[in-house]
């Protein structure tokens, strides 16, 4: 638990809640130490605090993985610079007025200069020049270039965020956060371009202050206080160099921290982790360096011992890296595990084989999942899940992707709760070409069948894409083929995928804004399980349950009189009729229907029986077969005309008739006249009857 998250300490909470006040008082205190004379003891404490704070900032930048984690740095740079200058003013006042400035400055001066003040002065100048010329100038230039590139790249990044949002790979909240982060990043680099000037000015001020302290101290104490010039030079040489070092060492740490923070790109690891991972990524490089060091050590005139020592050390590092890479897990397996985790978090992992929905892929299809190889299957599945939610109104749980070495070449397998429901074959480095209007495709490739709709197709080389498009063929990539197949499987089996927990979440989402209907319906009139069965009935016939408010209000209206799930489903279908029919209209906004002969309708109506699974017509098997043959004949006639149609049945027999034909014709919709709005044009394109008389 971090310092800020420690809720057990009331003192900590008081400090955290008043940090804005403390920060304001701290800045006012910096102004105060410039004006108010400080005793040497207080100055010592503030100088040590300055060193401590600079070390914290320096080490913090080593562990920072993103500039946004330290976006306050430009303002912090100004405050620390002002603090150092305030300490310089206080120390100058003490040096020139009392001829001493506390134990910290004296200790720094004595440790660095020793008995030679010229050496101390040179060391001080070198530190200032390193800070002024090398680090600060470089950091300022990097910040300037980064600010320009960030601003230039903002429109493209904004478009990328919008594209991800439209594709469904991110939510509205995630898109909003990414836009805010993008703006903060641009503001950071723009601000750092100017903030680096603070450090540069601080270095110049440090040199000027040291010169003033040295010359002013000698002049004041030799002319006014009777000290000899040699004594004044010795005393003020020690004090000015100590004062300069005490101020410039923290300034150097801050300058280095500035450079590290600006030059680092966003990553998932700290500087040390990234350095180790990238510097020692190839054992061969370290081995070659070891050999070169050994060779240099054998050259006459060169000191052999240090070269041999470093050769042995680098050889040992190379050997350890070689063993680690040899015995470690394969990189591709790590990527598969990363992608599995992203789509199905560990917290949602269930017993093997019992996931709601999972995909198994052969070893050849691993590149579809591997991000570094350009695979985007995981992202496309996330977008497809979002699309299913918008179309069908149900949220599909995260889909686990596994590699299965038992699968055939280029094969994938789709499972629902551990059971195989579909499989297909795709070629990851080719494109699928189809011609919906013809069974023959005039292009060289590997003949196949499109797995989702069973259309004849050909796998072609990517170089043939332009030729295929010129001939008017449909060209899709292998990931799209798999996603399309998966989407069709989900639609066909959506009634199996919706659980009571899913229903509860849907009901809870409605309750947030329409609590009255939920409280009236559940559990007073219907249980959650009964609502689930009604939703399953709708989804079985591919009716979207997105309009949950209408569904629940309809159930609340009719559940008072009946608890028959099948009948309640028909009432809901009547209320959803507009959205049901719209999916079956042709280009002229007409509904093509295949009607049932009145005698057939009477026969079915007289023989409807109820069962646990619902109602069904108990008729002679021969009559049943003849009905299916007539339906098949009508559907073929429509297909020859390039049309699609639905079967129109009386409301009383609609569910029973649908259950009778769904095994033979699972994709043929059966609707009742009650479900068709008055403004929809109906065209009868066929009739199902027992004989031709």
UniProtKB/TrEMBL annotation:
The keyword Cell membrane is annotated on this UniProt entry: yes
What is the first-listed, main subcellular location in coarse terms? Answer: membrane
Compartments it resides in:
Cell membrane
**UniProt xrefs under Gene3D superfamilies:** FHIPEP family, domain 1, FHIPEP family, domain 3, FHIPEP family, domain 4
- Could you tell me which InterPro entries the record lists for this protein? FHIPEP_1, FHIPEP_3, FHIPEP_4, FHIPEP_CS, FlhA, T3SS_FHIPEP
- The domain of life is Bacteria
Its placement in the membrane is given as: Multi-pass membrane protein
Entry's Pfam families?
A: FHIPEP
Enumerate the transmembrane spans.
21-39, 45-63, 70-87, 117-139, 203-224, 236-261, 281-299, 305-322
Mind listing the UniProt keywords for this protein, alphabetically? Bacterial flagellum biogenesis, Bacterial flagellum protein export, Cell membrane, Cell projection, Cilium, Flagellum, Membrane, Protein transport, Transmembrane, Transmembrane helix, Transport
Q: Which GO terms describe its biological process?
A: bacterial-type flagellum assembly; protein secretion
Q: Which GO cellular component terms are attached? A: plasma membrane
Alphabetized NCBIfam families for the sequence: FlhA
Q: Which family does it belong to?
A: Belongs to the FHIPEP (flagella/HR/invasion proteins export pore) family.
Q: Which PANTHER family match?
A: FLAGELLAR BIOSYNTHESIS PROTEIN FLHA-RELATED, FLAGELLAR EXPORT PROTEIN, MEMBRANE FLHA SUBUNIT-RELATED
Q: What does this protein do?
A: Required for formation of the rod structure of the flagellar apparatus. Together with FliI and FliH, may constitute the export apparatus of flagellin.
Q: Any idea what this protein is called?
A: Flagellar biosynthesis protein FlhA
Species of the source: Clostridium grantii DSM 8605
- Gene symbol here is flhA
């Amino acid at each position: 638990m971090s310092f800020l998250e420690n809720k057990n300490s009331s003192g900590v909470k008081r400090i955290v809640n008043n940090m804005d006040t403390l920060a304001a008082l701290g800045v006012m205190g910096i102004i105060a130490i410039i004006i108010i004379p400080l005793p040497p003891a207080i100055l010592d404490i503030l100088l040590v605090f300055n060193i401590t704070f600079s070390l914290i900032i320096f080490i913090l930048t080593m562990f920072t993985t993103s500039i946004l984690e330290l976006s306050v740095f430009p303002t912090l740079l100004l405050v620390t610079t002002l603090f150092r200058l305030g300490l310089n003013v206080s120390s100058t006042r003490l040096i020139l007025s009392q001829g001493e400035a506390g134990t910290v400055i004296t200790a720094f001066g004595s440790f660095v200069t020793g008995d030679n003040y010229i050496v101390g002065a040179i060391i001080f100048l070198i530190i200032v020049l390193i800070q002024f010329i090398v680090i600060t100038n470089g950091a300022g230039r990097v910040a300037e270039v980064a600010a320009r590139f960030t601003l230039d790249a903002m429109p493209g990044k904004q478009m990328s965020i919008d594209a991800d949002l439209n594709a469904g790979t991110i939510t509205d909240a995630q898109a909003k956060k990414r836009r805010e982060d993008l703006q903060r990043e641009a503001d950071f680099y723009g601000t750092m371009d100017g903030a680096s000037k603070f450090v540069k000015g601080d270095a110049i001020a440090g040199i000027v202050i040291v010169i003033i302290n040295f010359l002013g101290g000698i002049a004041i104490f030799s002319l006014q206080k009777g000290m000899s010039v040699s004594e004044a030079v010795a005393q003020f040489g020690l004090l000015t160099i100590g004062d300069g070092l005490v101020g410039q060492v923290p300034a150097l740490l801050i300058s280095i921290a500035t450079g590290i923070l600006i030059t680092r790109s966003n990553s998932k690891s700290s500087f040390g982790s990234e350095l180790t991972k990238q510097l020692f990524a190839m054992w061969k490089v370290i081995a070659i360096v070891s050999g070169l060091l050994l060779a240099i050590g054998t050259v006459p005139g060169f000191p052999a011992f240090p070269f041999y020592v470093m050769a042995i050390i680098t050889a040992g590092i190379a050997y350890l890296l070689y063993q680690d890479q040899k015995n470690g897990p394969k990189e591709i397996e790590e990527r598969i595990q990363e992608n599995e985790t992203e789509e199905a978090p560990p917290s949602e992992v269930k017993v093997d084989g019992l996931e709601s929905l999972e995909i198994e892929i052969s070893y050849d299809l691993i590149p579809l999942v591997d991000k570094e190889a350009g695979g985007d299957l995981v992202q496309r599945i996330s977008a497809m899940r979002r699309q299913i939610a918008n179309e069908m109104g149900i949220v599909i749980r995260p889909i686990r992707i596994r590699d299965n070495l038992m699968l055939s070449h280029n094969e994938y397998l789709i499972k629902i709760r551990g059971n195989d429901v579909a499989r297909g074959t795709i070629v990851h480095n080719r494109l699928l070409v189809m011609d919906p209007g013809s069974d023959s495709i005039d292009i060289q490739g590997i003949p196949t069948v499109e797995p989702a709709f069973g259309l004849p197709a050909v796998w072609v080389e990517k170089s043939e894409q332009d030729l295929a498009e010129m001939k008017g063929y449909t060209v899709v990539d292998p990931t799209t083929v798999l996603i399309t197949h998966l989407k069709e499987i989900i639609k066909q089996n959506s009634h199996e995928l919706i659980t009571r927990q899913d229903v509860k979440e849907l009901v809870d989402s409605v309750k947030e804004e329409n609590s009255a209907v939920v409280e009236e319906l559940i559990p007073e009139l219907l249980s959650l399980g009964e609502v689930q069965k009604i939703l399953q009935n709708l989804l079985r016939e591919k009716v979207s349950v997105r309009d949950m408010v209408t569904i629940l209000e309809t159930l609340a209206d009719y559940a008072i009189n009946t608890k028959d799930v099948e009948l309640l489903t028909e009432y809901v279908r009547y209320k959803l009729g507009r959205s049901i029919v719209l999916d079956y209209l042709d280009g002229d906004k007409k509904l093509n229907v295949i009607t049932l002969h009145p005698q057939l309708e009477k026969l079915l109506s007289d023989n409807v029986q109820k069962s646990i699974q619902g109602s069904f017509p108990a008729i002679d098997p021969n009559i049943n077969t003849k009905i299916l043959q007539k339906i098949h004949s009508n559907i073929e006639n429509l297909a020859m005309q390039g049309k699609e149609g639905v079967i129109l049945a009386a409301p009383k027999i609609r569910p029973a008739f649908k259950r009778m034909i769904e095994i033979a014709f699972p994709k043929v919709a059966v609707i009742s006249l009650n479900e068709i709005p008055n403004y929809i044009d109906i065209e009868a394109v066929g009739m199902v009857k027992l004989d031709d008389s």
